[in-house]
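Title: [Solved] Transporter substrate-binding domain-containing protein 3D structure

Original question kept below for reference.
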Amino acid sequence: MELGIQGKREDIVLMRLFKALSLFICLGGQGFATELKIVVSQYTPPYVFEDGSGILLDIVRTALAEGGYQVKPIYVPIERGFRMFADRQVDGTTIIQESSGLQAEYSDYFMQYHNRAFVLKSSQQVIHRIADLGGKSVIAFQYAERYLGEEFARAVAGNPRYKELAQQQSQVHMLLLGRIDVAIMDESIFRYYHQKLIAERQVEPGQEVISYDIFPPTRFKAAFTDPAVRDGFDKAIALMRKDGRYEAIYRKYTERYFSVEP
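Solution (posted by the thread starter after getting help):
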């Protein structure tokens, strides 16, 4: 009798161990997300920070997590990112348009930059339209001629005082020091670096800057090698917009870096 009871107890213990093992395997399978190498622009706060945070990274990471993917950001210059994607060294890239010519599975538009022309008020520069940039000393972000359209390309064509810089803090710094007439860049990036330079005492805080809204927002897509990943990304972005998570990401960084003193 005792042997029978002992055998039943052993069966119960084994059954419990089996169930526990099955649960562990199940949960473990869910916990190991597929890693995706995704190209993002180099340090462009508040969209991309070196520590892996930022508006862009948070949006992309949240959207791909819906499909069970984990993002490994690849921080490279724009042109190198294109080559890496074309060579299939990465699984996706961000902040891109189909006009890039890359053969890829493009997402819907998922975010935008709003580029403006910034001038010092003291310089008395007035810019009502893109053509007004002609003849002025202008510094824009890298590949601005490609993204800002034909009218902009014509306005700066042949202008020896037009330059493009990858380091956007330098754009803001040069403008605030009065070394250039116009800086062209995304409004959020400008505001971040403006406040950073003031906080670091590299520029005077009292300088008034005027921004001219002469460019329409530049909308961007993401691109992937796998159409299934693209489809999941689009669905997740749509859901994030609907349930408020998309807006919450923007609000988090706006409140952190652009708070207005009463």
